[in-house]
Give the backbone structure.
Amino acid sequence: MRSSDIDVHGTADEQLRRAGQRYTANRRSLVDALVGSSGPVTVIELLESIDGMAQSSAYRNLAVLEEAGVVHRVVTDDDTARYELAEHLTGHHHHLVCARCGAVIDIDVPNVIEDELRSLSAKVARAHGFRIDHHRLDLVGTCGNCTAPTD
Amino acid sequence: MRSSDIDVHGTADEQLRRAGQRYTANRRSLVDALVGSSGPVTVIELLESIDGMAQSSAYRNLAVLEEAGVVHRVVTDDDTARYELAEHLTGHHHHLVCARCGAVIDIDVPNVIEDELRSLSAKVARAHGFRIDHHRLDLVGTCGNCTAPTD
DNA sequence: ATGAGTGCAAAGGCTTTGCATTAGG
DNA sequence: CCTAATGCAAAGCCTTTGCACTCAT
C-alpha cells in the first residue's frame, strides 16, 4: 500500500469530517507536502515547501490532522518534531535515523520481525497492565553524507 | 547485568577520566539518582530528587556524562528529554511508553527478536550506506493509571 | 595559581496561545 | 450570519549560554 495507490485527499477529507473538521486549503497543502516526502519532515521544512502559510497555522493544522488520524507526529533524537502521513496512508514502516544530521528514512521490516513484535506486545501488555497501541522501531546510526571525507 | 551488580560510580569515574573530565559531587548525585530509577527520567524529576543543584548544572553535567558514555539521552513522545544510565551499566533493554502521561518503563526483549534486529540492521546498513550504531524499540500504549475509571 | 565546575540570570529555539480578521457553510 | 480558520504578534516551555565566583589539583 503506497500513497500513490490511495485517494489521500479523499481519505483525509473524510477523516476530518468525521472529526467535525473541515479540509481547508492549508490542510490540503500540508497533506500534499507530506505525500511528496520520503520520510518524516520538520515543520520548518513543510513551511519552506508551502509558501505563505503562517507558522501558527502549520502547527495548528498539523495538530488537527493528527487528532483526526491523517498524519502522525514523530520524535527522534533532535527535539524537532517531524510529521508523516498516518500508516493507513503509507503502510506500516519503521525509520532509519542519522544521529548526526537528523535525517529520517522510511524502511520496511520483514514480517518475521513484525510478527514477533506483535506477540511481544501482547505479552508485555499483560505483564504491565498496559493497552499497547503500536510499536516503534528505529535503526540509529550515521548516514553516508555524515560519514563522508569532508568531516 | 544490573546496576546493582556493577560498581557504577567506579565505572563512571573511569569513563569520565578517560574523557578528561572529573567525577564531581554533582555528577555523582545525578548518577545516584539514575541508579534509583526504573526507567528514563526527566531533568525536572532529577532536580526534584537531588535538591540544591542548579538547573544549568544538571543540563551541563548530563551532557558531559552522555559525552563520556555514562548516561544516555532518550526522547519519546513528549518533547522532554529523559536520561538513563548507559546500557553497559543497565544491560540492553527497550521501553514501554504511555502515550498519555509519558511514563517510560524498561522492558527486556527475547533474544530471538534481538538477533533478528541485528541482522536487519546489517542489511539496512548495506542498502542505505549507513553505519548503524544501535536500534531503539518502543512499545507505545496507555498505562494502567491512564486507563483508570477516573478518566 | 589555574582551569574546571557551579549558580544565577538572561537568551534561544521550537511550539502554543490570544486576538482581531477573513472565509466557508 | 455564525462559527471555524487564519495571520500576526506575544507568550511559554525546555534547554543553552554568559559571566562572575568557587573549588579542586
In short: The CA atoms of residues 76 and 97 of chain B lie 8 Å apart. Residues 22, 24, 43-44, 55-56, 59-60, 63, 79-81 of chain B lie near DNA strand D (CB under 10 Å from a C1'). Chain B has one domain: 3-144. Strands of chain B lie at 41-42, 71-74, 82-85, 94-98, 104-107, 131-142.
